[in-house]
Amino acid sequence: MREIIKLDGIKRDFIVGDEIVHALRGVSFTVGEGEFVTIMGKSGSGKSTLLNILGCLDTASQGDYFLDGVSVRDMDKNQRAILRNRKIGFVFQNYNLLPKTTAIENVELPLMYNNKYTRDQRYARSVEALKAVGLGDRLEHKSNQMSGGQMQRVAIARALVNDPAMILADEATGNLDTRTSFEILVLFQKLHAEGRTIIFVTHNPDLEKYSTRTITLRDGKVISDESNKNVLDAADALSRLPVEND
Amino acid sequence: MNFGNLFRIALKALSNNKFRGFLTMLGIIIGVGSVITMLAIGQGSKRSIQAEISEMGSNMIMISPGGDRRGGVRLSADDMQTLKVKDFEDIVEKCSYVSLASPTVNASGQCVYGSNNTPTSVYGVNLDYLEIRNYKVEDGDTFSEQDIKTAAKVCLIGKTVVENLFTNGENPVGKVIRFGSIPLKIVGVLESKGNNSMGMDQDDLLIAPYTTVMKRIQAVTYLQGITCSALSEDYTDQAIDQITKVLRENHKLKDGDSDNFEIRSQQELASMMTSTSDLMSTLLAAVAAISLIVGGIGIMNIMYVSVTERTKEIGLRMSIGARGMDILAQFLIEATLLSVMGGIIGVIVGVGASFVVKALLAYPIHIQPWSIILSFAVCTFIGIFFGWYPARKASNLDPIEALRYE
């Protein structure tokens, strides 16, 4: 199995005033292609720091990080920007769609920063990505005309459009109600079934049951790393939710 | 990242804030509009002055006896009697760069015809003078060389004098008027020249042979001036050199002596007069340029606010792969688009305002193509210059911080 992520003794220190804060104290794990990993941890566990490093937004103070076989450690800002553009799809808690911009334009955005794509290719791929998240009929809807669930779907489409090595979701269901959260989980499970690698960072323990593996952080260290033998089906959970009558 | 995509992104961002963009451009619009209007007005008045001057004869050279000191008393040029007919004759003979020359002797006085009278001046000149000063005879004929030789009592009459003396509309040609006590027969009526740029009525005069004015009216042997015309405008300096040489020789001046005459060319006069309007247009343009800079600062201000406001957007763009220079370019293009669009509207407003000024105030305007090109160049420069700092700030943002920014 191809290794998408290989972390080897990652440490990250921050200097706050006179003190050195050890946010990560030696994190090592690998994630193979097609895994659906939940990274759990309470606030202060180093979860966000790890997410930033995995997302190539930050670099480790010590240790090696290989993303899809490429060492990130010695890359400069511009190289990491290009790496993010080609290898990573971000999904944020608050969607981060551009205001007053249509769904298709939001999804096209990552491809705008990639010279390989012509205008027509960009459009075709974005339409495809929006269809994959079930928004094929909402291409021209603006971000402020959509519900939270729809906006998150657009954000997921945007994460998919560059065909990334992994999708990095940061509390992707944190702003959504239960039903919509499950809808998004169904979507993630569908993407996983299609062979995508997904890293899902959350503090909500209910979500880990839907992924294939859970890594738990505490105080900057991995305290448990378990595969989930009994993956629940989000679609099943969704169907058992009480139907809203409004 | 290609330029076309960046351009599209910038355009999209601007169109999201149309009204704000318009307000930002307003500074540039007013700046460019005023630069163009001011230059158009300045250049218009300069051109009209130049046109008037060239109507007076652009290659004209005026010689007058300079003021001099006699026993410690400085005398005015009018009292000098140094300029003689001989000087005039020598200039005609020896100065190859001088094409036309005329002595001038003027007299002021009351002019009478029948029961009407009017104060006016009589210019004693020869026939070259009409050509040098662009006077044309509308009715009748000029006096002749023979009239000059015999100091004949004839004259040409200007339109203003005609209006004052011939109130019942009779034809003045052939009539005899009196200038002071001297009767002069009108041989021709001059075409109207209107006022000159100093506001002097150029039609309020009589033109008579210089011999007539010298001998019969003034009873003097010297000239008040000599008016010449150089071969062309380009030869004015050479002509002045030749004249100076002839006059110094005639007046027996030694090498160390200063000239006892004064030579002024129309070119000098023109540059003197246009320098005033040049100064005016420079000042106006400077004020307009300041408003352009203020407009630029407005752009900088708005771009700065915009960067802060869109911090999250910048963070997102960076997280999906925009490099610092992509962000820099995007904001620079936005700033430049604002200023260039403002420039385009400003040019339209400026040209429009110029024509309004022309239509309402009948002010001469001339829109210079280079002022439009310059405005565009300045606008582009302003966009880049004032957009640079905010764009730089945007591109230096840390994506993690920017994404977290609320």
Largest interface: A-B, 27 and 24 residues
Order of helices and strands of chain A: EEEHEEHEHHHEHEEEH
The CATH superfamily of chain A bears the name P-loop containing nucleotide triphosphate hydrolases
Q: Provide the spatial order of strands within the biggest beta sheet of chain A.
A: 6-7-8-3-9-10
User: Strand order across the biggest sheet of chain B?
Assistant: 4-5-10-7-9-8
Report the principal-axis shape of chain B. elongated
Structure description:
- The complex is a heterodimer of chains A (246) and B (406).
- With 246 residues, chain A is of the alpha/beta class.
- Chain A has a single domain, classed as 3-Layer(aba) Sandwich (Rossmann fold), CATH 3.40.50.
- Chain A contains seven helices and ten strands.
- Chain B folds into two domains: 183 residues, no CATH class; 179 residues, no CATH class.
- Chain B has 406 residues and is an alpha+beta fold.
- In chain B, a hairpin with a 2-residue loop joins strand 8 and strand 9.
- The relative contact order of chain B is 0.19.
- Helices cover 56% and strands 18% of the residues of chain B.
- In chain B, the strands form two sheets. Chain B has a six-stranded mixed barrel, surrounded by four helices.
- Chain B is built from 13 helices and twelve strands.
- At the A-B interface, helix 2 and helix 3 of A face helix 1, helix 10, helix 11 and helix 13 of B.
Jot down its keywords:
heterodimer, A: alpha/beta, four-stranded antiparallel sheet, B: alpha+beta, 2 domains, two-stranded antiparallel ribbon, 13 helices, 12 strands
SSE layout and pairing:
The complex is a heterodimer of chains A (246) and B (406).
Chain A: E1 3-16, E2 19-32, E3 36-40, H1 47-54, E4 62-67, E5 70-71, H2 77-87, E6 88-91, H3 103-112, H4 119-132, H5 148-160, E7 166-170, H6 178-193, E8 198-202, E9 213-218, E10 221-227, H7 234-240
Parallel strand pairs in A: 3-8, 3-9, 6-7, 7-8
Antiparallel strand pairs in A: 1-2, 1-4, 4-5, 9-10
Chain B: H1 3-15, H2 18-57, E1 60-65, E2 68-70, E3 73-75, H3 85-94, E4 98-113, E5 116-125, H4 127-132, E6 137-140, H5 145-149, E7 154-157, H6 159-165, E8 176-179, E9 182-190, E10 205-209, H7 210-218, E11 225-230, H8 236-250, E12 261-265, H9 266-309, H10 311-319, H11 324-361, H12 369-395, H13 399-404
Parallel strand pairs in B: 5-10, 7-9
Antiparallel strand pairs in B: 1-11, 1-12, 2-3, 4-5, 4-8, 4-11, 6-9, 7-10, 8-9
